[in-house]
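Working notes for the structural subgroup meeting. M.R. asked for a predicted model of this chain before we commit to crystallization trials. I am recording the input and output together here so anyone reviewing the notebook later can reproduce the run.

Input as submitted:
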Amino acid sequence: MAPLLFLLLISISISSSSSQTLIESVTTKVDVTGYCNSWRLAVENGNLVNWGETPEICVDYVKEYISSGQFDSDIEIVVQNAISFLGYEFMWHDGTDSWFFDIDETLVWGGLGTRASKEFLELLGADKSPKAIEPMLKLWKALLDKDYKIFLISERPEPLRNATVNELTAAGYYDWFRLYLRQENEMTKNLIQYKTEKREELDNFGYILRGALADQWNDMKGYPMALRSIKVPNPMYYME
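Returned structure, recorded in token form:
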């Protein structure tokens, strides 16, 4: 297992073909657990790209990760670190300090834009209706208490605006400054291009991008970047 772990950790990008070769070499339950531990670490580090959905060999592993409470614990740590970051005294306090969020699998599970499978959503309690990711509500309140402008940049299409507002409000989110959804002429843009353009727009308006939080690295790549980019774990799917 050591060579497998070494390969997964040092790769800048692991192709789908090489991942398949590694999967084919897994033969025992110990191998499966070790492989899936390494696979998830590579995913969260951003070393594994274009992987689509959870590989079949790791579906049970991810289900255990969710049901054991480890997923919740990992998200809690992410939020605690984000709140700690807010303690630094670097704000301008002139209304330009801002933070942006993705929505699906960042603020809510099982929302209108989710790509998670039903079996994962059932374990998250979000298979029948969207559910707030509870630790995010603490971060949200902390941001508002410090007078941050909160921007939501979602890949959802514009026609879902009213439904998105209702979904977020029902989940406990309020007082965001602006909600960006994809316009008709933006539907063919990849995630990096679309979200980079929106951050550039905020930058041009004079907002200081202090922080970003999303479940995909591609939500936060590209210039201008936030001073602090924080990823929420998501071993359920990858978006380009």
